[in-house]
Amino acid sequence: MTVATTLGRASMAMALTCISSTAAAATPVTFAQVANIQYDWARLDSDAGRGDEHGFRRARVGFKLKDHAGRWQFVAEHDVADKTAADAYLELTPAKGHAIRVGQFKQPFLLEDAVSDKQTPLLEQSLVGVFAISRRIGIEYARAPDWGTINAAVFDQRLDGTSQSRGASPRGTWLLRSGDTETAHIGASVATESPDNQRASFRVTPGTTLTDLRLGSTGSLNGVDRLDRAALESLWIRAAWSLQAELAQVTARRPGADFDGHASSVLTDGGMAWELALRWSAIDLDDGVVAGGRVDSVGLGATCYINKRARISGNLLRFDRRGIDDHPTDAGLRLQLTY
């Protein structure tokens, strides 16, 4: 039995134990259905291909169980579009400001990935998101003292059996300002993992997952003993305005031929019922040995909040790959329903 399978079964057993003990104590439990439905339309214009695409980007449905005392909650989601489990974890709160999660969840690496996919200002993550670990089965400890946050996790594969790789990832943030109308923080995160198949790959898509076009790719990196990641982040929010910046890098440790990749992103965002966002990001997958490409991207996004459960988002992105006279543009539109 793998570590991942053991953790998955353990989280389910712990959830059932908590539910049983809560019921035995006659403590009320809240049951809520959750969903995140996103339908995208995208028009891609590039020398490598043109055309319109549309389809479900996400179709996640699930439920959340939570006891009224705030001691635990259990979250389970399935993405009908991807035909795979998304979040599936038990979270315990042994004391105020402390939390423990067991199951499958987003690993604590990158501010870009930590932002809920229900609230992204543009349709897809910036180029920094290429280095995200995303969801894995693991155990996480989180603490939220007055001065910031601390998260540390160990992880393995996904529930669907992919991404078999044991690793660990700590992330910390430090508050610079904290108030009702203004807040600011800086942060850092690192991660390391060892892929079971000793392979890794990183690729750049043109602002939509609905196309097979790749603007940059390392191809399959073989003989990878370890993947080491590091990132620096900053975020400033004042009333309806925000400014976010992040730097990230990854190193694939290989005998005699390590690969190094770098990415950065700056995002400014503002609005109330209407939200406008401007983003610049870049990624470098060329390191002298691997010619994965260097790509820059500028994007403009707009979101209209119809009500608290529905919104319409659109963005216009332009990509430039250095050394290639092709400037792909992507126009995207999304209808999103959440509850």
Descriptive report:
The chain has helices at 3-24, 111-114; strands spanning 29-46, 49-67, 72-79, 84-95, 98-106, 135-143, 148-155, 165-178, 182-195, 199-200, 203-204, 216-217, 221-222, 226-238, 241-253, 259-271, 274-286, 291-305, 310-321, 329-338. The protein is mainly beta and 339 residues long. The chain has one domain (3-338): Porin (Beta Barrel). The strands form 3 sheets. The chain has a 16-stranded antiparallel barrel. A two-stranded antiparallel ribbon has the order 10-13. Strand 8 (165-178) and strand 9 (182-195) form a beta hairpin.
Blueprint (SSEs and pairs):
Layout: H1 3-24, E1 29-46, E2 49-67, E3 72-79, E4 84-95, E5 98-106, H2 111-114, E6 135-143, E7 148-155, E8 165-178, E9 182-195, E10 199-200, E11 203-204, E12 216-217, E13 221-222, E14 226-238, E15 241-253, E16 259-271, E17 274-286, E18 291-305, E19 310-321, E20 329-338
Antiparallel strand pairs: 1-2, 1-20, 2-3, 3-4, 4-5, 5-6, 6-7, 7-8, 8-9, 9-14, 10-13, 11-12, 14-15, 15-16, 16-17, 17-18, 18-19, 19-20
